[in-house]
Amino acid sequence: MQTEACTGEAKTEKLKVKEALQAEAIGKRVLLQGWVRTRRDSKGGFSFIDLTDGSSIKGVQVIAENKLPNYESEILKAGIGSSVEVVGTVVASPAKGQTTEVKAECVKILGYSDPEKYPLQKKETSMEFLRSIAHLRTRTMTFGAVFRIRNEICRSIHNFYQSRGFMYVQTPVITASDCEGAGQMFKVTTLDLQNPPLKESENKKSEIDFEQDFFGRATHLTVSGQLEAEIFATAFGNVYTFGPTFRAENSNTTRHLAEFWMIEPEVAFCDLEGDMDLAEEFLQTIFKDVLENCPEDIAFLNEKVDNTIIETLKGIVETKFERLTYTEAVEILIASKEKFEFPVEWGIDLQTEHERYLTERKFKKPVILTDYPKDIKAFYMKLNSDGKTVRAMDVLVPKIGEIIGGSQREDNLETLERRMKECGLNPEDYWWYLDLRRFGTVPHAGFGLGLERCVQFVTGMGNIRDVIPFPRAPKSCDF
């Protein structure tokens, strides 16, 4: 490949920085394009430019000599963040810690960055400050590593399901169904909020007339693609969704986002045991792929963020998950005599402190809990014969607790209708969902994995807002 800017007559090969860093690139005449991470000028009449293009945690060192025609006028003015185009030859590097460097024949400055005003300097910068400049934080080494790992996790997810014959289903972002029954949903409307159309309800009170809205009914941003995924599972067998979901939960914790991405496989002719097997293999595959395909990024975060990342991931990949019921877990927690912030008794929704005790202190490995009380779980989970518990499962991992939640779905029509009413839902609003039980119902199961929760766990980042490109949280919606 040639470029009129620098290459002249000789052939050049356009490479990414990660490719130029490999020993097999030595001797090649190359074109590199990227940004200046640092520039160090020598009294010997040349400059060292650390060039990055985001393809690697490492930058490639470019040697620019003062005999280059624009050395004084341009190169010495290229501060941190400046974009450059370099043509040169890859040579073996005598410096410690790097295999190659590039001896420049031509350096063209594409865009200057004023070093006095550029917010990102070589010194340490707080995560809070970087969140305020999310349009630039991706250029740092830490966030470069995080988002390359996020990309690898996404690639691994698709590969996992595609290689096993699952169909990828794109479920709607706008929905009229509340999957979880929690009510914490964002309304979607085109009505004039200052003067909405009203109608008289059955109790003689005025309420908004959503029949005049764009869709002719009340609609919301989805909290889950599960219900729609079940439609496809009952036609294609194995499917998965991978898309954004939204929760209008007014929470400003380090674990919550208003917009996040979910992966939700749904498998027909599958019970809870098969669901647990899939979840365990799924997590182990993701973590194995990250360790194998992002070794430098993981090593960097293991050194700079959390020095237990590699050990933890390897432990999960190589370990069979512990499995026990919710009731057994409660008995273990009570018998532990631990002074938990939230006291333990049967029927409560287990908190992170309880989950971490089980994974970090009791079993020292991932744990899958099953058969939760029906009153703390969603209407669609299959009721057990005891009438008190449902075929639900949560996968718990060290450090964060729950990372996957799933269940076998209720496939009995009468039981499902009864559960809907118990949860305050109108079965008529879910007529299409009930039809799946009327026409060829089968045992089926699935689960959900929050992408950001997974990325946070893998990278060791302390705040979930630092593992999504553009975080959405209460009072925060930039870009």
Give a quick rundown of the structure.
This protein has about 475 residues and is of the alpha+beta class. Among the domains are: about 15-110, OB fold (Dihydrolipoamide Acetyltransferase, E2P); about 140-160 and about 270-465, Bira Bifunctional Protein, Domain 2 (BirA Bifunctional Protein, domain 2, 2-Layer Sandwich), CATH 3.30.930. It has 13 helices and 19 strands.
The percent of residues in helical segments reads 25-40%
Main beta sheet strand tally, sense and closure? 8 strands, mixed
Mean pLDDT: 93
CATH class categorisation of the domain at 141-160 and 270-466: Alpha Beta
Which secondary-structure class do the elements indicate? alpha+beta
Radius of gyration: 27 Å
Would you tell me which CATH topology of the domain at 141-160 and 270-466 applies? Answer: BirA Bifunctional Protein, domain 2
Spatial order of the strands in the main sheet?
7-13-14-19-18-17-16-15
Strand tally is: 19
Span between termini: 36 Å
- At CATH level 2, the architecture of the domain at 141-160 and 270-466 is 2-Layer Sandwich
**Assembly classification:** single chain
Q: What percentage of the residues does DSSP assign to strands (E)?
A: 25-35%
Shape: elongated
